[in-house]
Design a protein that fits this description.
about 15% strand, Endonuclease III, domain 1, four-stranded mixed beta sheet, about 40% helix, Nucleoside Triphosphate Pyrophosphohydrolase, alpha+beta, elongated, about 375 residues, four-stranded antiparallel beta sheet
């Protein structure tokens, strides 16, 4: 057994005394660890933990998740963002259950073959579940390493990442890689913070080159941020009597794939209301305008400028209406766009391709809705119609 380095010793001592209690840290089960890591990608622990609890309660073992529907998974994921993670989660569970006989891959290289599992996630599972000697490098660890060694290379370039990973492996505690990796991540989260690092309480203060000359905030070195792309969305929210509305399922491979929204017009730029009213009349027939509400929704690389047009078509309800359809789905597989649970409780009527009538009260109960849609329905100007 190799001797423990002073750095690893101090780090482990600090971790044992200060780490947060988390459910996925109390197990060596690869499925549980994988589930937590996918949920925590791009998500802070405080936000991700309730989602982990919901998923592990609904799907305590991999087989339960593999047998679930995508609608159910997306519904549980609703509000967490980066929805491709949820779709990959389900696809990977099905693959392991059907192709690998329900047996989780047991080393880093095999884990890398799973959909949605990159180098970081593979290293985390391999280290935490199997004690494999691989360094786990997430954003927190990158920050710690870059400050410890004063790495001047850009950490968001392949060269910078390579340097960080090599150093992370060099200082890895070969006797207890799992605890070391957890400790490095915890240190970055609790002590070596992006702003206001708590250097006085850092167990690695005496080892840190940037601390020696108080240049901590200069690291890590990153490229300049790119400007977020602006998207202009116009949603048509239709009231059909007091209890129904129209929704559509997004089936193309872009934002909110396989989730549900109100019928949507995606524009290249801002839309003049007077021009859009004519579009509404052409596509929806006669209607009464109730409300126009504008919301801004900020994502990681996009800023959505959304305008919601709330219209009432109650008086025109018995007539055939030419609904706008943003994406097409054939009548042969229309039923696949409706959550199975809905069919047993609410009557769903297909009007044209993937745009269909639903009970308003079924929206939040059965359909996976982007946060922008739920934010609209919760707005004080319109919530009486939806909640």
């Amino acid at each position: 057994m190799e001797d423990v380095s002073p750095l690893s010793f101090e780090l482990a001592q600090w971790y044992n005394a200060n780490h947060r209690q988390m459910p996925w840290r109390r197990t060596k089960d690869a499925y549980t660890i994988w589930l937590s890591e996918i949920i925590l990608q791009q998500t802070q622990v405080i936000q991700g933990t309730p989602y982990f609890d919901k998923f592990i309660k609904e799907f305590p073992i991999l087989k339960n998740l593999a047998e679930s529907s995508e609608d159910k998974v997306l519904k549980l994921w609703q509000g967490l963002g980066y929805y491709s993670r949820a779709r990959n989660l389900l696809q990977t569970a099905k693959y392991i259950q059907l192709e690998l006989n329900g047996i989780f891959p047991k080393n880093y290289n095999e884990l890398l073959k799973l959909k949605g599992v990159g180098e970081y996630t593979a290293a985390a599972i391999a280290s935490f579940a199997y004690d494999e000697l691989v360094a786990v490098v997430d954003g927190n660890v990158m920050r710690v390493i870059s400050r410890l060694f004063k790495i001047n290379e850009l950490v968001d370039t392949s060269k910078g990442v390579k340097i960080i990973k090599e150093l992370a492996h060099q200082i890895l505690d070969k006797n207890n890689p799992a605890t070391h990796n957890q400790a490095m991540m915890e240190l970055g989260s609790l002590v070596c913070r992006p702003q206001n690092p708590d250097c006085l309480n850092c167990p690695l203060e005496s080892f840190c080159l940037s601390r020696s000359d108080n240049t901590m905030l200069l690291f890590p070195v990153k490229s300049k941020k790119t400007t977020a792309k602006k998207l202009y969305f116009n949603f048509v929210v239709t009231l059909l009597g007091q209890s129904k509305t129209l929704i559509t399922k997004r089936i193309l491979n872009n934002i909110w794939k396989n989730m549900y929204t109100f019928p949507l017009y995606e524009m290249e730029g801002e839309t003049k209301e007077i021009d859009f009213f004519q579009v509404l009349k052409d596509d929806f027939g006669d209607f009464k305008l109730i409300n126009i509400l504008c919301l801004k929704h900020v994502l990681s690389h996009r800023i959505i400028e959304a305008t919601f047009y709330l219209i009432d078509q109650t008086e025109n309800q018995q007539n055939e209406r030419p609904y706008y359809v943003s994406e097409s789905i054939s009548s042969d597989n229309f039923d696949q766009s409706i959550p199975l649970d809905v069919k047993n409780k609410y009557k769903v009527t297909s009007k044209k391709n993937n745009t269909f009538e639903v009970e308003i009260k079924s929206l939040t109960e059965f359909y996976s809705l982007p946060r922008l849609i739920t934010k609209y329905m919760e707005s004080k100007e319109v919530k009486n119609y939806f909640l």
